[in-house]
Amino acid sequence: MDLKGKLRKGLRIFGSDNREYGTIDRYDDQYAYVDQRRIPMSAFERMDNDRLYIGDQGRQYFETNDRATAEGEIRVPVREERLNVEKRQGEMGSVDIRKDVTTEQVNIPVELRHEEVTVDRVNVKDRPVAAGEMAGAFEEGTIRVPVRGEEAVVQKEAFVTGEVVVDRDVKTERQTISDTVRKERVDVDENYQRDRSWFEEHFGKRKSGLGANADTRTFADAEPHYRRGYEAAHDERYAGRDFADVEPELRRAHTGGESWEHLREEIREGFDRGRGQRTTERRTS
């Protein structure tokens, strides 16, 4: 949900069940802060006038601390995505078999019979016309005599004279499916805030130790480097490795304008503090 330009201090937050979770104390481009809770913008589902609603996944940012108060512990689910590859049938291509129709002249000899008419005039001895011969006598007209014969009748019949056999074989090939998966990393912000005063004191001691050679930077300028080392200490990519082993990778990833040698001590201090290697030290009054 795009909340750019819509958030304001004092905006009330509700759940889908209309339960009120509090009001926004402050906010930035990524988070809204409610009673020391940092709520990511993705947790909000919709906005209705002066009400901001969180989704079902967003409730965890409020309910986690409720469980901590009641039970004395905080349980934060850490999730990750895994690839699940399935197989399904699909058309991978085709084989086209073309059939052409050709025409050829076929001659088949056939013997046909027919009648031929021959007209002959025969003289007979005069005799009286019999009674049955008087019909049509002395009438003009044409006498039609049918002439019969055989004629050829052509019929076409289709026959199967051959077959084209297409054989399909099933082949197996191995493929490697690659994709990106996401993992959730536990937010170490709460622990960092606990140790923030230590880093501020460490910075002050370093700066005072440099005396006249101290630069003009403030703790606000140095804090991102302490935090970077602190977060690296909790990064699973660097689990079980000390700073000397991790330093080349952190240095390659460094993109700031300041030199690594200038920032190394602050990053190393954040890393060691995040690993708990300096928890036995105490602040001096």
Write the layout of secondary structure elements.
Elements: E1 12-14, E2 20-23, E3 26-27, E4 31-34, E5 37-40, E6 44-48, E7 51-54, H1 60-71, H2 189-210, H3 219-233, H4 243-253, H5 260-274
Parallel strand pairs: 1-7
Antiparallel strand pairs: 1-2, 3-4, 4-5, 6-7
Structural account:
Among the domains are: 60 residues, SH3 type barrels, CATH 2.30.30; 86 residues. Helix 2 packs across helix 5 and helix 3 packs across helix 5. The chain is an alpha+beta fold and 285 residues long. The radius of gyration is 51 Å and the shape is rod-shaped. The chain starts with 11 loop residues before the first strand and ends in an 11-residue tail after the last helix. The protein has a four-stranded mixed sheet, with no helix packed on it. A three-stranded antiparallel sheet has the order 3-4-5, with no helix packed on it.
Q: What structural class do helix, strand and pairing data support?
A: alpha+beta
Low-pLDDT stretches: 279-285
What is the helix fraction of residues, given as a range? 25-40%
What is the H-and-E element order?
EEEEEEEHHHHH
Strand % is: 5-15%
Number of helical regions: 5
Q: Distance N terminus to C terminus? A: 48 Å
What's the arrangement of strands in the largest beta sheet? 2-1-7-6
What is the number of strand segments?
7
Shape, principal axes of CA atoms: rod-shaped
Sheet having the most strands? 4 strands, mixed
How large, in whole angstroms, is the Cα Rg?
51 Å
Q: Please tell me the overall pLDDT.
A: 81
